[in-house]
Design brief:
heterodimer; A: six-stranded mixed sheet; four-stranded antiparallel sheet; globular; B: two-stranded antiparallel ribbon; about 70% helix; about 0% strand; flat
Chain lengths: ~260, ~325
């Protein structure tokens, strides 16, 4: 199921502006890797290069390699649509399709990939909603619109939608920043369960969250506004938060910037 | 007991504090704006009521003097001691030509709008949008002249072809006359309503939330699948509204229809042969020569057009409201 991500020499641009510079890292399968760093340091941009969503932005362009196990996502002849079916994504703001029911939201990805029997769809939807710890809350109203759920439920619905297609990797871009603490806790618990099955990469502004959920943490920083963001270091989360090898990391996590 | 100071025991301020919050602060601007907006609202209702009253009074005079069934009679004779006239032909012509126009224009307009909003490179999109908007500025008499002098002679080939393959349906049989027919009117109306439907649809598609497009993309949707999953559902009610605007124009179009159509008070099963008429075209071509009763009769036909337009709009509102909780509006 889960695959290793190997990034080497990756830079991303918006037009002529270089947003991130020469990033290399390895993300182990079945682990949670957190990206932390100040706003504008390119964490989200980097995350979006991992499923080729960056190039959807007008002017967005990427150099370098991203290997998923041994396959280069940016190799010639690789279809970005196929990449996104393998590398799922959950966004900052919950974004269930407003015109679809809860059931249809979860089934949306499957229906893209081909035709399924109704019974197969039922099974996958139930399994995915259970996987996202949402089944008990919505099982009696699967035909109601997804936009009627609370913010936290909507975000878990989006996670269910993402895992329904059984991706190899799950990317999460600040998935809890629009949620209250209780919903956040629910998502964090869920991340702990999901890492048994998926490789998870999560961008977060909340350092306690990074410390709570992740196995490894990557710290990104930028030299100045307008400069490209860089990977400062990546290490075991415990080490990053207790004894990081770079001074800038320690300054950032202890609240002393610069 | 008294040692703890509390807010209520604080000395009262020198100015009376009550008046600063309880007094009504109405400034001249508020009063002027209130009067202006209330006045416009009332004026609108009064004008609408006046139009309705005018139409109804004159129509009642006409219909009570009609010696035939106003709704089902096929001819239009308003002079003489026993006037006989009915709107059957006009209603048929108006509805059929507008439906043809919608069937042709709406899919094309949605296609152009999607191309401009989601496919075309930005360098191409804005000039293209500008050209479409420009089409809306062409006066309808110009469309009419173009239709009569260019479209009509150039459609004979297409109509012969339709006759060869679809003539057996009756609707598409064609006897090689100059096609000043309802179908030609429909095509012309389609071109005329294309700009309005296109530009309203384009604006709606451009407002489709990025986050839902990204949600679809991240699931591995192709560009068309993104449009189908997030843009079209969001734009649905907007496209319906746009179509209704276009339909309103098609139903009421006068000059272009009057220039192209060779009118006749008959219902021709074949839409490719001349004949038929529309409400607006009939009013325009007969009004100047009509006596007072003739005018009343034309006004009565105008009232029917008004009612048809009202029904169409009501139906569109119903369609939009029916699935409100699934619309993009509550995202």
């Amino acid at each position: 199921m889960a695959k290793r991500i190997d990034v080497s020499g990756l830079s991303a641009y918006y037009g002529s502006h270089k947003a991130i510079d020469d990033i290399s890292m390895t993300v182990e399968p079945r682990s949670v890797t957190a990206f932390i760093g100040p706003s504008g340091c390119g964490k989200s941009t980097f995350l979006r290069t991992l499923n080729r969503m960056h190039e959807v932005t007008p002017g967005g362009r990427v150099e370098g390699k991203v290997l998923l196990d041994d396959e280069n996502l940016y190799g010639s002849g690789v279809d970005p649509v196929a990449v996104r079916r393998t590398v799922g994504m959950v966004f900052q703001r919950p974004n269930p399709f407003p015109t679809m029911s809860i059931f249809d939201n979860v089934a949306a990805g499957l229906r893209l990939n081909g035709s399924y029997k109704k019974s197969e769809l039922n099974d996958v939807v139930e399994k995915s909603l259970k996987g996202a710890n949402l089944w008990n809350e919505v099982k009696d109203r699967l035909n109601k619109p997804g936009s009627g759920l609370s913010g936290g439920q909507q975000q878990r619905l989006c996670i269910a939608r993402a895992i329904a297609v059984e991706p190899q990797v799950l990317l999460m871009d600040e998935p809890c920043s629009a949620l209250d603490p209780i919903s956040t806790l629910a998502i964090e618990d869920l991340i702990g369960e999901l890492k048994e099955r998926f490789t998870i990469v999560i961008v977060t502004h909340n350092m306690q969250q990074a410390a709570r959920v992740s196995d490894r943490t990557a710290f990104f920083n930028l030299a100045a506004v307008g400069q490209p963001g860089k990977l400062v270091e990546i290490d075991d989360t415990e080490r990053i938060f207790s004894n990081p090898s770079v001074q800038a990391t320690e300054d950032y996590i202890s609240g002393r910037f610069g | 007991m008294n040692s703890a100071p509390s807010i209520s025991s604080a000395p009262p301020p020198s100015a009376p504090p009550a008046s600063s919050v309880s007094g009504k602060a109405v400034r001249p601007g508020d009063r002027i704006f209130l009067g202006l907006s209330r006045g416009s609202g009332i004026a609108l209702l009064v004008i609408m009521a006046a139009i309705a009253a005018f139409l109804t009074v004159r129509s009642v005079i006409a219909i009570s003097g009609d010696h035939a069934n106003f709704l089902t009679f096929f001819e239009w004779n308003t002079s003489g001691p026993e006037p006989k006239f009915g709107i059957a032909v006009l209603a048929f012509g108006t509805v059929v030509s507008s439906v043809i126009a919608m069937v042709i224009a709406v899919p094309v307009a949605v296609g152009i709008a999607l191309f401009i909003s989601h496919y075309a490179p930005r360098r191409l999109a804005s000039p293209l949008g500008y050209v479409i908007d420009l089409l809306a500025a062409v006066p309808s008499i110009i469309y009419g002249l173009w239709g009569a002098l260019f479209l009509v002679p150039h459609l004979t080939g297409l109509y012969s072809w339709l006759d060869d393959y679809l003539g057996w349906t009756g609707i598409f049989s064609y006897d090689d006359q100059a096609p000043r027919a309802l179908f030609t009117v429909g095509i012309l109306l389609a071109i005329m309503i294309l700009p309005i439907v296109t530009s309203v649809s384009r604006e709606v598609f451009l407002q489709a939330p990025k986050m839902h497009e990204e949600a679809a993309l991240a699931l591995g949707a192709t560009r068309w699948e993104v449009i189908r999953m997030s843009v079209l559902p969001f734009g649905r009610s907007g496209v319906i509204s746009a179509s209704m605007l276009g339909l309103g124009r098609a139903l009421g179009e006068t000059m272009a229809v009057a220039t192209v159509l060779s009118p006749g008070f008959l219902i021709n099963v074949s839409l490719l042969n001349p004949g038929g008429g529309t409400f607006a075209q009939n009013i325009a071509s007969k009004f100047s020569e009509a006596d007072e009763f003739g005018q009343d009769a034309l006004i009565a036909s105008g009232l029917v057009l008004f009612v048809i337009t009202l029904l169409v709009n009501g139906a569109a509102r119903l369609i939009i409201a029916r699935r409100k909780e699934y619309s993009g509006a509550n995202a």
